[in-house]
What we know:
Elements: E1 17-22, E2 28-32, H1 44-57, E3 66-68, H2 71-74, E4 88-90, H3 91-101, H4 104-115, H5 118-131, H6 154-167, E5 179-182, E6 185-188, H7 192-197, E7 201-209, E8 213-222, E9 225-234, H8 237-252, H9 275-278, H10 284-291, E10 318-319, E11 322-323, E12 338-339, E13 342-343, H11 345-352, E14 363-364
Amino acid sequence: MTAATVSSAPSRADVGAWIVLDAQTGDVLDEKDATRPWYPASITKLMTAYVAFKAIREGRMALNSAVTVSANANAEPPSKMGFKVGTRLTLESALKMMLIKSANDIAVAVAESVGGTEQAFIDQMNAEAQRLGLRATHFVNPHGLPDNRQLSSARDLGIISMALWREFPEYRDYYNHVGFRFGKKLLRSANREYLQRVPGANGLKTGYICNSGYNVAVSATRGGRTVMAVILGAGSGLERLAASRELIDKGFRKRGGRSITSLTEIEGSPPPDGYCKSNPRLDAEELVARYGGGAPRKPSLAGLLSYGGNHDRQGSRIIPGIDVSTSDGDEEDIDVPKKGNKVDWGRIMDDIVGPRVNAADPIAVALGSPVLPKLEEVVRDSGSDVGRPEPKPAQAGASVLAPVPAAAPAVPPGAIANPGISSAGKSEANPGSIFRGTVSPKTPFPLVKPQQ
Length: 452
């Protein structure tokens, strides 16, 4: 714990680390163990997006560049889209699927398409981390799936979030959607309740693996000012959400502070293996006791709580850290809401986070029509794990690209005879098929890497 922490509530061991920032100035508004190494989980995808956005800005890629799902990408575990090997989509669609749905297979497909290979892209991620001055960060994959070599910190993830916000304002809406529709399927963001319930909320990304607990990078803009927070190691998604609301609200009440770049010392060790098992999640009573009140009201002192609504007014009922005999809260007003014999989690969320105040319209995302490289730009790579079809023989009286003189030499082995043909626009993928491991339309060929 450092002197910069300003939270009025007692520090809680089951929220591992956090930092709150002014996105414009880089001032640290609040922090706890912000330089402690931590597993970033899927917040990693913010750096994947940063490297891809930079490639677009430098002209090495475009939003309609082709992203191809390789066998390597397809092999990633969920969360994923599950497209068939060889499926092509635009980089724009891929980035939205990766940031909103947190699709691990698409993260690898983006990495391979932008970097040429997954490892080359990871090298770019680490080069950008060094250039941005990240101290505790090292990447070994583009998605954040478990690997104890992949580390970051609240401070470093805050810098990545600020870099995205400042350098690429044109892409801010890529990570502020509650979900997207793909055909008839609705795929929701894990950050949707934050985006709906926190005034001014506009991003960014959640993450979870067992060794990290529940992580999130969030942002909100009010009155022309943007505040960001990174929270690492919450005990549940609901606690992560409540802590996000609380820290963002407190951030807007404070100005000034030391610069994030002044936090240079790496302090502490990563969380132990199996962190999620040793870090118990708060139950309904404890969540209301810790975060109750809901924005924009002040947190209540929830002293007497029980699922049945029965209270011991002599103070025998003790919530961790709170002696009910000294609580000045109104006991009858702080019951855990219930529906019959079950906890009413909807009402609890209203209380500890706030009611829904923002729109919740998902966007539409399709595969798109990626631009393929020209014939002379095709790189022949016999080691590709996607695979390519044998050139189709020319049909009598027909030409695919242009008339071919009778004396023209045969297409050499490995070359592509019809690179401009695509099934895009002729048939839409059956949306439900991606969840059964198949895709309805035939994969367009040739399967080649886009121009780098």
